[in-house]
Design brief:
326 residues, 68% helix, elongated
C-alpha cells in the first residue's frame, strides 16, 4: 500500500479537510472570511477588507469576539493581497492531500525573509569590489616588500634617498632608538621604491577605476569606445589599406599571444623588441617565431642539469611509481 493510499485511508477514518489548523486562516476559508469569491480581484479584496475592518475594529465593535474577528480579517487580507501567498493558498485548497508540500510552501514564505533582489545585488557587488581592492593592495605591498629585500634595489634606493637628503647622516647624535630610526629609514626607502619601481601585471599598483562597481558603471562607455574603434579599424586598415602604427602592431601581437593587456605589459621590453624586429604582428611571421622560441626553450632545458635529472628520474622510476630505493 503506497503512502498516498495510506493518507487517503487515514482521511477516510479521521476526516480530511483542505483547511488545516495552523496554516493560513486555519479551519476558516480566507475567502469566506472576507466575504469574497476565489476569482475576486485585488481591488475587490482590498475593498472588502477595508469595509470589514471598519465594522469589526476593536474601537468600534463592542462584541466579545470583535478582536478575534478583526485578527482573522487582517490575517486573511495579508494572505490574499500578495499574489505569491494567494497562489500557495489556492494550491492548498485544490490539493489537500499534499500535506507536506502545503506545510513546506507555507513555512517557506514565513521563514525566508523578503529581501529586495536589488539590495542583494548591490551588496554583493559592493563586497566583491571591496575584496578586489583589498587583494590588489595586498599583492602590491607584497611586491614592494620583495623588491626592498633585494640588496641591489635596496642599495639603489638608499643612494637616491641620500642624494635627496632624506636620510639622517648624524645617527649618533639622534636621540631616538635604533628601532625608530630603522622604521623611519624603511618608510623612506619604501617610498623611493614605490615612486621608481616599474611593477606591471597583477602586482601593479591598484586603481579604484578597476574595481567591479566602477567597471560596471563605465561598461556602456567601453562598449561605445569599442564600436567606434572597430569601425575605425575596418575603415583604415581593411578598406583604405593604411600601414599599421606602433599601437596597432602591439594590439595584433597581443592578440596572437592571446594575453590580456596587463600580461602583455609585464613582458620584458627585450622580448617585445624581438616581436617587432620579426614583424610578429603578421600572423605567419608570429607562427614561425613561436616555433623558434619553443625550440630554443627545448634546447635550454636539454642543457639544464636539473631538467636532465628530472627526465632521467621520470624515465627510470616514473611519476606514479612507489619505491624504497634511495
Amino acid at each position: 500500500m503506497g503512502l498516498r493510499s495510506v493518507f487517503i485511508f487515514l482521511c477516510f477514518i479521521q476526516g480530511c479537510d483542505s483547511l488545516i489548523e495552523g496554516l493560513y486562516c486555519g479551519k476558516q476559508n480566507c475567502y469566506d472570511v472576507l466575504n469574497i469569491s476565489r476569482d475576486a480581484t485585488k481591488g475587490e479584496i482590498s475593498k472588502s477588507y477595508r469595509r470589514l475592518a471598519r465594522v469589526y475594529h476593536p474601537d468600534k465593535y463592542k462584541g466579545k469576539d470583535g478582536e478575534k474577528k478583526f485578527i482573522s480579517i487582517s490575517n486573511a487580507y495579508e494572505i490574499l493581497k500578495e499574489e505569491d501567498s494567494r497562489q500557495d493558498y489556492d494550491y492548498m485548497l485544490d490539493n489537500p492531500d499534499e500535506l507536506y508540500r502545503n506545510y513546506y510552501r507555507y513555512y517557506r514564505r514565513k521563514v525566508v525573509p523578503k529581501v529586495d533582489p536589488k539590495i542583494v545585488v548591490t551588496v554583493t557587488i559592493t563586497v566583491v569590489s571591496l575584496i578586489q581592492y583589498y587583494v590588489w593592495w595586498a599583492r602590491y605591498n607584497e611586491a614592494i616588500s620583495q623588491i626592498m629585500m633585494v640588496p641591489k634595489y635596496r642599495l639603489k634606493a638608499m643612494e637616491m634617498a641620500s642624494s635627496q637628503g632624506l636620510l639622517s647622516k648624524q645617527k649618533k647624535k639622534d636621540k631616538r632608538t635604533k628601532e625608530e630610526i630603522k622604521e623611519e629609514e624603511n618608510e623612506i626607502l619604501r617610498k623611493i621604491v614605490e615612486e621608481n619601481a616599474d611593477i606591471r601585471g597583477v602586482y601593479c599598483k591598484p586603481s579604484v577605476v578597476d574595481v567591479l562597481w566602477v567597471q560596471l558603471f563605465i561598461f556602456p562607455y567601453y562598449i561605445y569606445q569599442y564600436i567606434v574603434w572597430y569601425i575605425r579599424w575596418i575603415w583604415r586598415f581593411n578598406i583604405k589599406k593604411e600601414e599599421y602604427g606602433d599601437e596597432e602592431k602591439k594590439y595584433l601581437i597581443r592578440r596572437h599571444l592571446k594575453v590580456s593587456q596587463g600580461q602583455f605589459d609585464a613582458i620584458p621590453d627585450e622580448q617585445k623588441e624581438v616581436y617587432f624586429e620579426r614583424e610578429a604582428w603578421i600572423l605567419d611571421n608570429f607562427k614561425v617565431l613561436k616555433e623558434e622560441l619553443v625550440e630554443e626553450e627545448k634546447r635550454k632545458l636539454a642543457n639544464n642539469s636539473k631538467y636532465k635529472m628530472y627526465r632521467r628520474y621520470m624515465k627510470n622510476k616514473g611519476g606514479g611509481r612507489m619505491t624504497f630505493e634511495d
